User: What shape does this take?
Amino acid sequence: MAECHPVGFQWVAEAKARGAKVVHIDPRFTRTSAIADLHVPLRMGTDIAFLGGLIRYVLDNELYFKEYVVAYTNAAALVGEDFVDAEDLGGLFSGFDPEHNQYDEASWQYEPEEAPHSGSDDPAGAAEQDRKEQDPEIKKTDKAQAAGSGGPPIPAKPKRDETLQHPRTVFQVLKRHFARYTPEMVAEVCGIEPEVFLQVARWVTENSKRDRTTAWVYSVGWTQHSVGAQYIRTCSILQTLLGNIGRPGGGILALRGHASIQGSTDVPTLYNLLPGYLPMPHAMQHATLDEYCADAAGKAGFWGNKRSYTVSLLKAWWGDAATAENDFCFDYMPKIDGDHSSYRQIADMIQGKIAGYFLVGENPTVGHPNGRMNRFGLANLDWLVVRDLQMIESATFWKESPEIETGELAPETIATEVFFVPAASHAEKEGTFTQTQRLLQWRHKAVEPPGDAKSDLWFYYHLGRMLRERLADSTDPRDRPLLDLTWDYPTHGPDQEPSADAVLREINGVGPDGHAVSGYMELKDDGSTTCGCWIYSGVYADEVNQAARRKPGREQGQVASEWGWAWPYNRRILYNRASADPDGKPWSERKKYVYWDEEAGRWTGADNPDFEATKRPDYVPPDGARAQDAIGGSDPFIMQGDGKAWLYAPAGVVDGPLPTHYEPAESVVENALYKQQANPTIEHIEGPWNRENPALSPVFPFQVTTYRLTEHHTAGGMSRTLPYLSELQPEFFVEVSPELAALRGLTNGDYATLVSTRTAIEAKVLVTERMRPIRLRSGQVVHQIGMPYHWSYSGISTGDSANDLLGIVLDPNTHIQEDKVSTADIRPGRRPRGPALIDFVESYRRRAGVGSGRVGVNGRDPVAAEAGEGSQL
Amino acid sequence: MTSISSASPAFTGRDPDNRLFGPLPDVQGEAGYDTDHPARVGFFTDTSVCIGCKACEVACKEWNTLPMDDSHGVRDVIGLSGMSYDNTGQLGANSWRHVAFIEQTRTVDLPTPTFGRPGDDRQGSGPSVAEGQNDDSLATAQQSGVLNAEALSEFDPQTGQTGSDKQIRWLMSSDVCKHCTHAGCLDVCPTGALFRTEFGTVVVQGDICNGCGYCVPACPYGVIDQRKDDGRVFKCTMCYDRLTDGLQPACATACPTQSIQFGNLEELQARADARLATLQGQGVETARLYGRDEDDGVGGAGAFFLLLDEPEVYGLPPDPVVTTRDLPSMWRAAAAGAAMMVGVVVSAFVGRRPR
Amino acid sequence: MKTWLDAWPVFRQLTGPDPLGRGAAARSRATENVVSRTATADRVVQSVCPYCAVGCGQRIFVKDEQIVQIEGDPDSPISRGRLCPKGSASKSLVTSPTRVTTVKYRRPYGTEWEDLELDTAMEMIADRVLEARRKGWQDENGGKRVNRTMGLASLGGATLDNEENYLMKKLYSAMGAIQIENQARI
Assistant: This one.
């Protein structure tokens, strides 16, 4: 955190000054470790083992927050008899389909209290949707993320045992599942001393429950794994058991790495999502609006209003054209029917399936793993538009890339037309970023952008305008969605810059009276309201740009509610009703936050309650209640279908209802916990340009991780180009331990070459005690190499690109790559140059027994290359 | 009516007012500012909370529009230094802040600081000395304020799973011009380019400096430096321009953890003393203040530090002395020599016979 | 005469309270006229740092329509005026001399960049979007209605504004493009 979010770290420093213990768990000794109370240098890729050990410690020593767990979680729910845990299947759960490498979640369900969907308006439809969820094709499309903040539907109300003693309660299932995560096992898997583990366990548990809370902070160090979603699940389970969710000083804080990466998920430019985590319609599931909304029909919680959110979105997009009679133009919405995520697209590009590509402030040939594969993708497009501040490598691949050097690419063979269209910087346009805690902050424009640089708002508005003008006379029904689109934003200035303010107001939504709505509770499913992103509804309440509020922090309380605006409803801590006990009283005076004021008949406190303000704590939903009305007064988790926090996920996580330690796809260590070595549901993308280093291969004997440095930013376009940052970290380097340096003859300050089945790269060597080998109980020594990934050939500070070394295997839940752990060989000296590099890497592939990486023209395989040039479309 | 002062120790060869050496309670007054001059300001750099982010280096360069180290902005001349994360190397004409990174490995205990404020109740918030060795080897480890996991392995050699039983400490410290009470650079400057500001800081005036370079060897810290393609000398101004607008220097403004604190020097000194007491109370015996003592060789510094190890570890001189300390005695010797010379010359003229 | 004399440091040194000429007497004309560019800015604009997701407040000082300083906004309850090295380099980012501010075009099989007017580029891009959309169009796939184009794809960075992401998603969806991705996946 000190390394990548230094200014956020001031609050950790302040907490430490007040007596908080700071524990840093990271294979790498960073600037955070330097001033933490304890650094836990666990072996890379073993976090679930560590966190699982903590869960076991909490359960075994009865250190969980009992009242919280019984009242607010699904601990008391009974799991159906068909469920078989990974404990009993060598690391697999029941329902595994080895043909598709997927799970059928049917056997993970609760034991129902009554017939499924008794409260549903459309029980048959909902059941049909649930059944379809398990179709392999639908599963591939990332349903887990589509469930997003809502949680997947649960088909039935479970039987409960409030004593938690029934062997099939979630609580007992959890206990059995984590039984083998003993301190000794944690020590063996993670390569740390049991005492270190116990120290953390003691600090975490001593600082949780009624009077105290513990917070966990993670970054992409958790998400970029083949079991990334499960890493976070494990922490969620731990925090829920300790009663650390929804309470001040608690929570799991995702420190995201870009200014508005949260916003880019909320208002997604993601293939599987519509704004506000509404799923993108699926061809096999959602032929009509009714089908699309069917799963919400019987759903408790705020997802029960999915139809209102969806209709309001359709109205925002297609305005008057969207009517009840035409399903509010639901059919205008294109449908997905598989994994269309970024890496799939690259593979499709190489095969000529995609003609045109927009890169808008992204530099994938450096920032994404397997740069070579990415460049092959770009080399097979018809055209590419790059919008950025600087001439980034993704725009110059056709003349300067490593493959030009090896001869695998040449300008003469690349047909891709490239448009570099300069972009405006953050200071040259207005708009909102959503920072890592869901806070929207409006930026005022300082100056005009230089030259032809324009905002992306300008680019897309005018591109849309031009497309609509070109198609104005079209009678093709395919063009109706474009022609009926509401696209009449006010513009200003000589460049006709569209009004970001007007766009934000559209996102907020407008009511039947023509005024901005104050929040999503006002949205209707009859077409009388519009709303571009329901969770952002309220950002323009009272016709005021709430994100632009800037009451100085020193003039406000700790929560600072009048600075910017957080979704939903300007609530700063999610699920904060959990900061009070079931009766609505604070758990303790010290941790008082949001609580029930009986006299006033409403929830009150330091923050806006993340709960219906006047719903009494003793409210019991009447029979037949739906949406939020079906959530009881003591159920804080209002976005979940049952109002509970889930210790066990009966649906929605595609690689298991409980987290399980698997080794990374590329690991040099055998899984000590289960026969199953790696996540059985890992998504692979196969081709000569994406070979995988076999697990346990002596050819690739070292573990590698990638990371950022304080001095640089991601793929470097915003830092390698600046002199003051470049001189602080002037070259690509890798960090190795003195032991590994001795083993491989590496010298501090000299070059080393790293090799994988993808390619070989060279880097300066920094020998440091901060990297350490890990000796496992078996005697095996695991050497770990650290690679900051900021570099490439352009800019002031240069070097080979770390990401070129990495392959692409994906977490099946999120389609996010596992680039926090891989394997490689390292040897002293510079890498071979030119075509010799291809032979050099090929010799490694041969020795490792993997397929050839040789490719034909522009990265296509030789056969396809002979078939012709350009796109196959 | 102006009168010509003859109080200068340069004239008298005496320094009863500590104008060249020793404590000097009012540096600005001594430098001719009226009694209502602003309070002397300074930097207190608390290295125990430094996270080595180098925001100070960048904020300084941005505000002062300093050149990149090679002055051309093409490629860094130093390249990867191979010295931990320090690629700046040292203070210079183009780098007015420099963050040092020191990696230490020892097999013995390295007490590390815990953050803390005087008088805070430490009960329940972690181990304290009072808890003693009632538990196991771990308590012993905790008691010493252990920094990282490697240290714990020492207490249980049986497990021995780590590849090495070393303990690591990573010290970071942002160095800067000390703005000495007795500034050698200022004292030797023949052109009046260096001067003491009304804030008590020492600043080079670019419109006066002629690049003679006398100040460079006069600095006991090696701070002031000539810019190669310019010839003149440059160093930290403590953002003199910003101070005139009531702002803090750029580095202190940016510093995320307030390792760099700017303010009234006396207040900073009191804060530093309290901080030191806290750390020492927590068993961080190696903590010390550097540049705080007005009896040191530069009369105390306007920019002083809390260090966690010997100054040499951070590349700081252990006992800096202003190079002009001996100026009065040198002047006395020189004056005697000059008098003798004059006498010789006079006698030579006197003794010359007209032709 | 007096003024002329006062401009002479040695006179000030010999006659004033700064006999060593190390302070008041040594002040140069530039020093006397020193002014902070925060004080002379025409306006100060509140903004947000474009690097990581902490969301530190920034104050942007503008003089003659040029950015002369970017520093932390002390009003921000998130950052309290502080910035990391990247945030502190924001002025360099925005005013970088290596920023490309005109359209560059590389034709098929071309070996060098060519210049292009922005309007021309926009027209060419619009043509190509429609063509790619048409080429990749699918009414159905596997017997199911999909109503989409597979001919184009998009990958956005996560420094896009919400408003920009919104327009992108809206426009792409209306044209039937589904292969829309963002750094948020990475």
Remarks:
- Residues 281 and 325 of chain B are 36 Å apart (CA to CA).
- The domain at 32-106+172-328 of chain B is CATH 3.30.70.20 (Alpha-Beta Plaits).
- Residues 327-350 of chain B form the longest helix (24 residues).
- Chain B is about 25% helix and 15% strand.
